[in-house]
């Protein structure tokens, strides 16, 4: 856990009753929370629960269907919010230098205002208005760090591993990872009052993550971020905001969860370390399941009691005397007792039907890298590929590696060391500029890439669903034998939604299903934990040792590296 310092103790970001739907698909429902200065709040939840959507709502980029968001810093006017998301905040035609200057434009403007205000004081030394203007300008300049901005630019670029990127290069000509890090640098240098970050550690190596942690530790305003990086969650978050479902009463959840999914309502807040929360959440889910079972059993008992409480004693019993008065006495007494019992049972039944909690949704369960439906008898044996003294100019230093059937390899190294380039050599998609890359037996090779480029379907029109894209990629006949649902990667309702409407994490889940549809001899996974939920990332890691073919993983994920027990190759920067 991190202790953060702040001078703006009264600044806060508040969401109240926020709900968002896209068409008939409900994403967020009645989400309320407050994040103040001194807090670094992490939004967590399964892929598709609306983490990125919530960040966009907080930033003001997406108006909610209901509820509101309010960001305030008393006595400071309208606060500025900075959002890091999938799209870069700079033009692809801008050079790196131009993008950086766009980022620090508010700081440069504050510097110019100090100069103008100082000139006004010089011209009107006795003017109270000029003095007030100068005081306000000076305070704003100090808050934005005007006099340290050039040093901050250099420190940020160095900290995020961008110091060697030529400033004259167009941003569209740098790598995807460099663009992601430049986007993060842009947001940090823009000096917003409120910081909103979507997957900030994607494409960051250890040094860059350490630098980001140091920045967040000193950030003066509220910070909200969404991340699947388990180590980063433990180190950075002071508060967790969980969008996954919680045990609300069925009377509340029922009308809102008409599609029967496990979508969350509201938010669960937890103050503590992420690893502590995992245990607390597991215990809470078990209590939810037990309470639901107990309530359903009690409902059955009360319904039976209501049916059986219409008589007292034996229905055919009659008093010994046939006197009319005696018969009426016993009949009246029986009617009163029956009425009281029926009313009591009905009241308890009605109360429990209103108060009963919703059924716990069944979580997605990853079917594994190879499911029982797939045959692996055709996988190759023996050596598969050998890279001998291979190098790619400017991208990969001289490297040697031999991958045999069934072996498990982890490729690590700093940004720019060539992890993805090495995977491309192993896949046969790239040839080295020196050295050799030799493939034996023509092995079947499949790669899960960092970018989720799903296959196009020319002439089939837009709006293709996940099921349709899956069938396009693996073949209609194969998709019938091994349907998308085999892998437990997407809920059934999302399989028939347009791919464009799915979250980044859900699209990458679809890419993984396509890769696994025909188990390859050599499975290449490039940053497999990026954009995946914590649960899925853990399940994928756990499935690697049981995969019958060879697996090569390129990753910067510190959690994965700590748990890795097989072969390991560390790359150096070329």
TrEMBL record:
<keyword id="KW-0067">ATP-binding</keyword>
<feature type="domain" description="ABC transporter">
    <location>
        <begin position="13"/>
        <end position="270"/>
    </location>
</feature>
<dbReference type="Pfam" id="PF00005">
    <property type="entry name" value="ABC_tran"/>
</dbReference>
<keyword id="KW-0547">Nucleotide-binding</keyword>
<feature type="domain" description="ABC transporter">
    <location>
        <begin position="379"/>
        <end position="571"/>
    </location>
</feature>
<dbReference type="InterPro" id="IPR017871">
    <property type="entry name" value="ABC_transporter-like_CS"/>
</dbReference>
<dbReference type="InterPro" id="IPR050611">
    <property type="entry name" value="ABCF"/>
</dbReference>
<dbReference type="InterPro" id="IPR003593">
    <property type="entry name" value="AAA+_ATPase"/>
</dbReference>
<dbReference type="GO" id="GO:0005524">
    <property type="term" value="F:ATP binding"/>
</dbReference>
<protein>
    <submittedName>
        <fullName>ABC-F family ATP-binding cassette domain-containing protein</fullName>
    </submittedName>
</protein>
<dbReference type="InterPro" id="IPR027417">
    <property type="entry name" value="P-loop_NTPase"/>
</dbReference>
<keyword id="KW-0677">Repeat</keyword>
<dbReference type="InterPro" id="IPR003439">
    <property type="entry name" value="ABC_transporter-like_ATP-bd"/>
</dbReference>
<dbReference type="GO" id="GO:0016887">
    <property type="term" value="F:ATP hydrolysis activity"/>
</dbReference>
């Amino acid at each position: 856990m991190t202790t953060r310092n702040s001078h703006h103790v009264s600044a806060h970001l508040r969401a109240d009753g926020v709900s968002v739907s896209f068409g008939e698909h409900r994403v967020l429902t009645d989400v309320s929370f407050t994040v103040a200065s001194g807090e670094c709040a992490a939004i967590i939840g399964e892929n598709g629960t609306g983490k990125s959507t919530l960040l966009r709502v907080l930033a003001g980029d997406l108006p909610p269907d209901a509820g509101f968001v309010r960001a305030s810093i008393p006595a400071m006017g309208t606060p500025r919010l900075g959002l890091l998301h999938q799209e870069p905040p700079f033009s692809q035609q801008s050079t790196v230098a131009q993008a950086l200057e766009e980022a620090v434009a508010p700081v440069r403007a504050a510097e110019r205002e100090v100069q103008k205000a100082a000139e006004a004081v010089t011209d009107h030394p006795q003017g109270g208005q000029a003095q007030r203007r100068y005081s306000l300008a000076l305070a704003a300049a100090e808050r934005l760090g005007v006099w340290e901005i050039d040093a901050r630019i250099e420190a940020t670029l160095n900290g995020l591993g961008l110091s060697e990127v030529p400033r004259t290069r167009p941003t569209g000509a740098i790598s995807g990872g460099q663009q992601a890090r430049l986007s993060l640098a842009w947001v940090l240098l823009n000096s917003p009052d409120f910081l909103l970050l979507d997957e900030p550690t994607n494409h960051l190596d250890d040094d860059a993550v350490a630098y980001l942690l140091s920045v967040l530790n000193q950030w003066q305003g509220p910070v909200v971020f969404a991340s699947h990086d388990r180590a980063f969650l433990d180190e950075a978050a002071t508060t967790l905001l969980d969008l996954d479902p919680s045990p609300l009463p069925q009377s509340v959840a029922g009308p809102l969860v008409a599609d029967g999914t496990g979508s969350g309502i509201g938010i669960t807040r937890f103050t503590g370390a992420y690893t502590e929360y995992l245990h607390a959440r597991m215990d809470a889910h078990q209590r939810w399941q037990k309470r639901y079972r107990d309530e359903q059993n009690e409902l059955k008992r009360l319904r039976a009691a209501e049916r059986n409480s219409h008589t007292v004693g034996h229905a055919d019993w009659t008093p010994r005397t046939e006197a009319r008065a005696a018969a009426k006495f016993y009949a009246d007494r029986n009617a009163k007792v029956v009425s009281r019992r029926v009313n009591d049972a009905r009241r308890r039944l009605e109360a429990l039907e209103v108060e009963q909690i919703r059924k716990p949704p069944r979580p997605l369960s990853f079917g594994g890298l190879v499911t029982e439906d797939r045959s692996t008898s055709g996988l190759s044996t023996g050596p598969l590929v050998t890279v001998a003294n291979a190098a790619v100019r400017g991208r990969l230093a001289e490297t040697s590696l031999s991958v045999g059937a069934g072996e498990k390899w982890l490729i690590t190294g700093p940004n720019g060391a060539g992890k993805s380039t090495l995977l491309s050599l192993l896949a046969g998609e790239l040839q080295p500029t020196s050295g050799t890359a030799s493939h034996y037996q023509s092995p079947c090779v499949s790669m899960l890439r960092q970018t989720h480029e799903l296959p196009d379907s020319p002439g089939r029109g837009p709006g293709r669903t996940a099921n349709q894209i899956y069938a396009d990629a693996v073949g209609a006949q194969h998709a019938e034998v091994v349907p998308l649902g085999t892998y437990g990667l997407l809920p059934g309702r999302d399989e028939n939604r347009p791919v464009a409407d799915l979250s980044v994490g859900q699209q990458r889940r679809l890419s993984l299903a396509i890769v696994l549809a025909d188990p390859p001899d050599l499975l290449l996974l490039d940053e497999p934990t990026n954009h995946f939920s914590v649960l899925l990332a853990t399940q994928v890691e756990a499935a690697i040792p049981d995969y019958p073919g060879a697996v090569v993983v390129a990753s910067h994920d510190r959690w994965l590296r700590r748990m890795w027990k097989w072969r390991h190759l560390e790359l150096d920067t070329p």
